[in-house]
């Protein structure tokens, strides 16, 4: 049986699969089993930020695989020590602590647990249209009803308020609230940036009421917005910061940055079997090397502005709004987005949706100007 037939027969059924079997990638290009070539503006949903199969990352993985693959955090490890030391320099506190895990959803779960552990409270305020993952705690913070309802009842104590609504935030944050959790750009929620006013208010309200502020940078972190962290755009110091997706160049990895206001951490209260394994840490060290050597954060800021400007210049009545930050870009349409995604795939461009009517582009940060121009040309042709 071929790839598509076999997966169709045995796959879980949770995924609405596209009729494309990808077998190879390099940079911003992927190839299908039938030989077709695509510019990949999904990047594994924001994972392949340094491109598919970057030679430095592949070499680091291969070398570490021959040395030591697993080492649980009851022991120290050289790759882990080097990585967390380097990551700490990029986090918004002077002396952060870092918990390593395997995904963004695990990072969110950890942040929720730490907020409850630190404050002794249980309430969590999250945002409408927010997405934080599909595990039980992360799903409780996620807003979309179609994700939540089949698994109800979820973790108690969660509430959802309109994004960027300062007055509502001030109403719902109380002495029973452990944390406020938000994305600075809502990815799945339609590529909607937070306003500076709302972010400042969230920090102030949390400070006044003894509440921890959790920022989910699983999608916006690692240069995606044109700064290493989206927090850098807002000069924001959260209390807990969640990372994932792009950290290890495609190897599963997540992390929580832990600020100084988080209390009561003690051995045995939380852990992860695979978190911080040497293989992932070696890949993550290589990713940081690539960011530095290729200037990917600065490059993304420039390319992102250019991409946004080009998309805004498309003369199509089907476009309602183009918004985004860096190379996290959404095109809101006056029609459903999925038919446009399918039409783009026929023209060699892989894209995402972000809700029913928003096209989402998350290309690898190494994408070339010529490739971005090709994306714009094909979007123009389809619309």
Concise structural overview:
This protein has 383 residues and is α/β, with parallel strands linked by helices. Helices cover 37% and strands 19% of the residues.
Strand order of the largest sheet: 4-12-11-10-7-5-6
Largest sheet, strands/sense/barrel:
7 strands, mixed
- The number of helical runs is 14
The CA-CA distance between the termini, in Å, is 37 Å
Task: Please give the share of residues in helix.
Answer: 25-40%
Shape: globular
CATH superfamily of the domain at 70-294: Type I PLP-dependent aspartate aminotransferase-like (Major domain)
Q: Per DSSP, what share of the residues sits in E-state strands of 2 or more residues?
A: 15-25%
Assign the CATH class of the domain at 70-294.
Alpha Beta
Number of strands: 17
Gyration radius (Cα, Å) is: 21 Å
Mean pLDDT: 97
CATH architectural designation of the domain at 70-294: 3-Layer(aba) Sandwich
Structural class: alpha/beta
